[in-house]
Each structure stands twice: as structure tokens, then as C-alpha cells.
Design the sequence.
């Protein structure tokens, strides 16, 4: 029991260190990595490269795949592009095995780990976020290798007369069945620890301690490649069909790879052993780990066994890399076929077609940690949607106003529905940006969130003003007041100018920025609109005094007031940019 808890504690320290290191790296360069993951997906080969780069840096294929599932669910990446990224992530995660093989079994880094933790903890107290993130990375790196060091010391050596060794031996001499049994063990192990990095650390350590040979250890590694897909599958459960298909494609890709590997397994094992033959040059660290002080005192058989065990970490790391590299070379040409398989296997559900923007934004905000600040892109896209609806409503007002001789009651109902849609969307967007702001954001993203919350409020008010204009135009259609000044070209031109101003605002909102020249142009345009409005208002008052048509003139002045509100909200949005 003491040994069991020592191993458990060592794994806990290793996993916590891996989590800290990964989180620190993602905070240091996470936005750049997420941008790479999103932008470098033009084709399967670019996707492969982006998956390789991102996973090699953050040292977690699970994190990359969960991030990917979130992107697909948000519509930032398509399914076929995601499959290429998954292939790259599988290759990128093999860097973990090389880190373990090189740092843990070639030389001792325990003397380096403690100073790194000490410096890292000190840096976490610095106010500047970059230094804090670097400190978090250093603490994670130190804990990771301290945990691995404890794991090596706590993992018992397998003596030929031990009960565990005898139990394992029952399953090691069954030929190909043994390979399948240990492959299944790899799947279960990864499902339990929920990390392929931890699983491969356990496998390498057990192999180096003599629990089993290279052939069976490699079978465990194959099983870990299948087991690691469960994290993405769990993350995809509440997501849409394409996100679930992304997780399924990860599983399909790995299963197909394991299937063809089992066919050529003995030959592949032989190739790895040929590329990395055992040697008598054993590192002092490995000798100390096995309690050997003088290699010369060992019998030739014992020395040969130690030499085979010493090369096992390198062989397993090479096997892991070569398997994934060959798997990519074989299957990258069949990405469209893999896509067809998962589309057939994961059928779209009726409720997926009924997913609202509100549900989509809620999913993105709940998975902000995986998507990071790129989640704000989806929010930005919906802000532009809100602007387009406001534009459509003002255009609807002009249509109803200019066609008072037609029956446009259905059009008025449609515009009313649009106004209600803007209320719901504005509320959802405000809630979304509030939830995003509760996470750790860069200074630029904080400004983006603040700006978007201002823009959303302005767009909602603009939509309300547009709908009031529609109700006034509807009254004109019902002949509830005399036309008078409504017929003048000046008012038609005034509405057209406002329409152009809204379009100008919309185009700058899509660019997410505005130049000083354009802002100056907007201010001049707003001043021009104000002069036209005052002129029309003066003319309406003059007609009211001369004709006595008070009701119509007052309603017309109210229309001018609402038009002013529309242009004011548009200018406020441009100033917010």
C-alpha cells in the first residue's frame, strides 16, 4: 500500500506539473498558437503543420483536440480541416516521450528542478502577466520532472521470483494475444489517468524497471493512442454534430492506424530495434536508478538485460514518433474518406438544426478556456449580425414609407419580429461578453470586450429607434395624417444619407477599426445630417403654422427625432471603434 500511494503521489505531481506547464505556455503564447490553429488550416497539409506546432508547444494532444472541437462547434474550422490538425496533434504529442526519455533517464535534473520551482514561484508574484505566466511554466516544468523522478524511485523493480512478475508473465508468452492484451491495458490506463502523457510516462518507467519488454511496451503505447481520444469525445458530447464528428475522426484515425500497425507489428518492432541497438554505454543516472554501482561486477546476462532496459525509453519514444509519422503518411491521402466514415457514423440530430445563437454563444463561453481569446471572434461575428439587422430595419422603414399605396402589413410584421430578435441577441451578446470578461484576458482583448458591450447597447437602441420609425411609416400608410412634407425630395434624400451612414458604420465595424480620416469624415457627415434635420424641422413647423395640420407635423418632427437617434447611435459606435 505504501508503494501504491507513493506511485499515486508521483503521478499526481507529474500530472499537476504537466497541467501547470501547459497552462503557462498557453498563457504565454496561447493566442498566437490558437491563431495558428485557426488560420493554418487551408488544406490538410497546413492543418497537419498547425496541429504539430501547437501540440509540440503545449505538450498535450488532448488540449489541442478539445480546442479543435470548440472551434468546429463555433464554425471557425470545418470538419475536413480539423482532421488534418488532429493528425499533426498526434505527431506533436510524441515530443513528451522524447522529453521523458532524454531528461529522466539520461541525466538527473532533480537538482535543477528545485531551483526552477523556487524562481518560478517568485515570478508568479510579479504584477506583469508575462512574468507570471513564465513563472507558472517554470513551476510546472520543475514539478513535472520531480514527479517523474519520484515515480522512478517508487516504481518497484521486477524480480524474477516476485508474485507480480509471475502474474505478468502469464500474459507475456501468449504470442499475438499478448500484444492485444497489453494494447487493451494501454487503452484502459489512458482512460483512467485521462492523459496520454502520464500514461506514456508510466509505460516508459515500468519498461525501464523490467516489468515487460519492448514489444509489449510498444503495444501499450498503441493502446494509449486510442485511449487519448476519450477526452475530446467527452468534450464533444454537448456540442453540435460537426464537433462530435471531429472527436469521432480522432478515434477513427487512431483505430485505423493501430489496425494496419498490428498487421506489420513484428517487422516494425524489428526496424526500431535495428535503428536503436542496445549499447554498453549506460548513463550513470540509469545505473543509479537500478541500484548498480559497478557495471563491471555484473554477469554478462545481467549486463545485457540492463543494456536492453536502458535503451527502452529511447526505443519507445522512437516507436511512438515513427508510428504516428507513418500513420500520417498512410492516411493523409484518405482524409475525404475518413470524413465520409464519421459523417455516416455520427448522424446529425434534428435538434442540431434548431441550435439558436444563444445556445451557441453559451457553449463558447463555457469552453472559453479551450478556445481562449479566439472565442471573442464568434462574439464579434454576432455583433456584426446585429448591425446588419439594424441596417435591414432602417431599410424596411424606407420601404414602408415610400410605398404607402401598397399592402405591407406582412412586411411590418416581419420587421417587428426582427426588432424582437435584436432584443434577444443583444441580451445574449451582453451576457456572453460579461462571461468572457471573467476570464484572464490580454489588455487588447479587455478593450475589445468593453468596446463590444458599448456597441451592442448602441445597436439595440438603434434597432428600437428603427422600429419606431416603422410604426410612424405605418401610420402614414393608414392615412392617419396628411402627407405634407413627406413628399419632399429633401426628406427622401435625408433618409438615404442616413442609410449610407449606417452602411459606413457597418463596414468599419466589420474591419474592427476606423482611421482618423474616416472618423473625421463621419463627424462631418453627422453634422451635415443634423443641418438637414433642422432645416426639415423648421419647414414642418412653418407648414403647421400655415395649414393648421398639427397632428401630421408633430408626427413628422418625431420621425426626424428618431432619425437623429439612429445617426447618433451610428456615430457612437464609430467613436467606440
Sequence:
Amino acid at each position: 500500500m505504501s508503494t501504491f500511494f507513493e506511485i499515486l503521489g508521483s503521478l499526481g505531481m507529474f500530472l499537476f506539473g504537466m497541467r501547470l506547464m501547459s497552462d503557462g505556455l498557453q498563457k504565454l503564447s496561447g493566442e498566437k498558437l490558437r491563431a495558428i490553429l485557426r488560420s493554418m488550416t487551408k488544406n490538410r497539409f497546413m492543418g497537419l503543420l498547425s496541429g504539430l506546432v501547437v501540440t509540440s508547444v503545449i505538450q498535450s494532444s488532448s488540449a489541442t483536440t478539445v480546442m479543435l472541437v470548440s472551434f468546429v462547434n463555433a464554425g471557425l474550422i470545418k470538419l475536413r480541416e480539423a482532421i488534418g490538425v488532429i493528425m499533426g496533434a498526434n505527431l506533436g504529442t510524441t515530443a513528451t516521450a522524447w522529453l521523458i526519455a532524454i531528461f529522466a533517464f539520461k541525466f538527473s535534473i532533480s537538482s535543477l528542478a528545485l531551483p526552477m520551482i523556487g524562481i518560478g514561484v517568485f515570478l508568479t508574484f510579479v504584477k506583469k502577466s508575462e512574468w507570471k505566466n513564465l513563472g507558472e511554466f517554470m513551476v510546472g516544468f520543475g514539478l513535472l520532472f520531480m514527479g517523474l523522478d519520484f515515480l522512478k524511485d517508487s516504481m518497484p523493480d521486477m524480480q524474477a521470483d516476485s508474485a507480480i512478475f509471475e502474474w505478468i508473465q502469464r500474459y507475456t508468452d501468449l504470442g499475438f494475444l499478448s500484444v492485444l492484451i497489453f494494447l487493451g491495458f494501454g487503452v484502459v490506463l489512458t482512460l483512467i489517468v485521462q492523459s496520454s502523457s502520464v500514461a506514456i510516462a508510466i509505460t516508459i518507467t515500468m519498461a525501464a524497471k523490467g516489468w515487460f519488454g519492448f514489444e509489449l511496451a510498444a503495444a501499450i503505447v498503441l493502446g494509449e493512442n486510442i485511449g487519448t481520444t476519450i477526452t475530446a469525445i467527452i468534450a464533444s458530447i454537448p456540442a453540435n454534430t460537426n464537433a462530435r464528428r471531429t472527436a469521432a475522426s480522432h478515434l477513427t484515425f487512431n483505430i485505423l492506424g493501430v489496425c494496419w500497425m498490428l498487421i506489420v507489428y513484428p517487422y516494425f518492432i524489428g526496424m526500431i530495434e535495428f535503428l536503436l541497438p542496445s549499447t554498453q554505454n549506460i548513463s550513470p543516472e540509469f545505473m543509479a536508478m537500478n541500484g548498480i554501482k559497478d557495471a563491471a561486477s555484473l554477469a554478462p546476462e545481467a549486463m545485457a538485460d540492463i543494456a536492453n532496459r536502458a535503451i527502452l525509453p529511447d526505443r519507445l519514444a522512437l516507436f511512438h514518433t515513427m508510428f504516428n509519422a507513418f500513420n500520417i503518411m498512410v492516411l493523409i491521402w484518405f482524409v475525404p474518406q475518413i470524413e465520409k466514415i464519421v459523417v455516416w457514423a455520427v448522424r446529425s440530430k434534428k435538434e442540431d438544426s434548431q441550435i439558436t445563437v444563444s445556445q451557441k454563444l453559451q457553449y463558447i463561453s463555457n469552453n472559453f478556456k479551450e478556445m481562449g481569446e479566439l472565442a471573442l471572434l464568434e462574439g464579434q461575428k454576432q455583433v456584426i449580425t446585429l448591425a446588419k439587422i439594424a441596417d435591414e430595419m432602417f431599410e424596411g422603414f424606407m420601404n414602408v414609407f415610400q410605398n404607402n399605396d401598397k399592402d405591407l402589413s406582412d412586411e411590418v410584421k416581419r420587421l417587428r419580429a426582427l426588432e424582437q430578435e435584436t432584443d434577444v441577441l443583444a441580451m445574449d451578446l451582453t451576457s456572453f461578453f460579461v462571461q468572457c470578461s471573467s476570464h484572464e484576458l490580454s489588455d487588447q482583448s479587455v478593450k475589445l470586450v468593453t468596446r463590444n458591450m458599448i456597441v451592442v447597447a448602441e445597436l439595440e437602441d438603434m434597432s428600437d429607434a428603427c422600429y419606431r420609425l416603422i410604426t410612424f411609416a405605418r401610420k402614414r400608410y393608414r392615412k392617419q395624417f396628411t402627407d405634407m412634407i413627406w413628399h419632399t425630395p429633401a426628406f427622401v434624400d435625408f433618409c438615404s444619407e442616413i442609410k449610407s451612414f449606417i452602411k459606413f458604420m457597418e463596414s468599419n465595424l466589420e474591419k474592427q477599426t476606423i482611421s482618423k480620416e474616416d472618423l473625421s469624415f463621419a463627424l462631418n457627415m453627422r453634422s451635415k445630417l443634423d443641418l438637414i434635420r433642422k432645416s426639415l424641422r423648421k419647414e414642418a413647423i412653418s407648414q403647421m403654422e400655415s395649414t393648421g395640420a398639427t397632428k401630421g407635423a408633430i408626427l413628422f418632427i418625431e420621425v426626424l427625432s428618431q432619425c437623429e437617434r439612429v445617426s447618433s447611435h451610428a456615430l457612437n459606435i464609430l467613436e467606440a471603434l
Notes: The chain has a mean pLDDT of 78. The chain has two domains: 2-350, 358-576.
